[in-house]
Amino acid sequence: MTQKEIRQYLPYSPPFLFVDELTVIGPNGITGNYTYRKDEYFYKGHFKKQAVTPGVILTETMAQIGLVCLGIYLLKDELQNGSLPALALSSAEVEFLLPVFPGEKVTVVSRKKYFRFNKLKCEVEMQNGQGKIVCRGVIAGLITKTR
Amino acid sequence: MTTEELIPRLKEIIKPYVRNQEAFNNLTEQTDFLNDLKINSANLVDVVLDIETAFDIIIDNESMEKMLNVKAALDIITQKLGEK
């Protein structure tokens, strides 16, 4: 399954799509990136005096690339007959190490811990343009096909 | 392994996922993982995977779907141990 095919199955659209590119795709993990646009809507209020990417958005970015894109890839054989992926986040435990400012490009690296009984659990790490770890954690979700 | 031997091992496995301590303390074979122990349904997968590791068994989808209470879990563990 190609990057383009995975992206077609993503159920998000701007301003809540945080996947620009997938660079490594495989059964045990996935790597992708996203550049936060300087005019993302959340920068207007987070914060009043200086724009910083909210932790929930970093977590969402890690989940969209690390969990959802990988989950779609892992379901590829079941998605061939017009089925769509159905997904739900079930847990996220994330620590934040550095701030991410408007315009920064981040790279998400996800390693599969397991995919069993429709639950995908991954160790996910986000790096900034300097290769420094911005946040990392364990994210899990339920992913299956709709019909 | 008898039920008396299995229950303490099972309790050790499910302990981190339990949200109702009282039901856990009074656990019986009839105790339901979701309704009594208030385990998050997504965490049932982790319970099953921890059972697989602890007992060195493989649990299939059909067994997983049945594993909703202590008795069902004990029956499946016993069955899978017997097949080894």
Structure keywords:
heterodimer, A: 147 residues, alpha+beta, Thiol Ester Dehydrase, Chain A, B: 84 residues, mainly alpha, Non-ribosomal Peptide Synthetase Peptidyl Carrier Protein, Chain A, globular
Task: Give the gist of this structure.
By secondary structure, chain A is α+β, with helices and mostly antiparallel strands. Helix content of chain A is about 20%, strand content about 40%. Helices cover about 60% and strands about 0% of the residues of chain B.
Descriptive account of the structure:
The complex is a heterodimer of chains A (147) and B (84). Chain A has 147 residues and is an alpha+beta fold. Chain A has helices at residues 3-9, 55-74; strands spanning 21-26, 29-35, 85-96, 105-116, 119-127, 133-145. In chain A, strands 1-2-4-5-6-3 form a 6-stranded antiparallel beta sheet, with helices on one face. In chain A, a hairpin with a 2-residue loop joins β1 (21-26) and β2. The radius of gyration of chain A is 15 Å and the shape is globular. The two termini of chain A are 20 Å apart. The mean pLDDT of chain A is 96. Chain B has one domain: Orthogonal Bundle (Non-ribosomal Peptide Synthetase Peptidyl Carrier Protein, Chain A), CATH 1.10.1200.10. Helix content of chain B is 60%, strand content 0%. Chain B is built from 5 helices and no strands. In chain B, 20% of the residues are buried. The mean pLDDT of chain B is 96. Chain A binds chain B through residues 90-91, 114, 116-119, 121, 140, 142, and chain B through 40, 42-43, 45-46, 48-49, 61, 64.
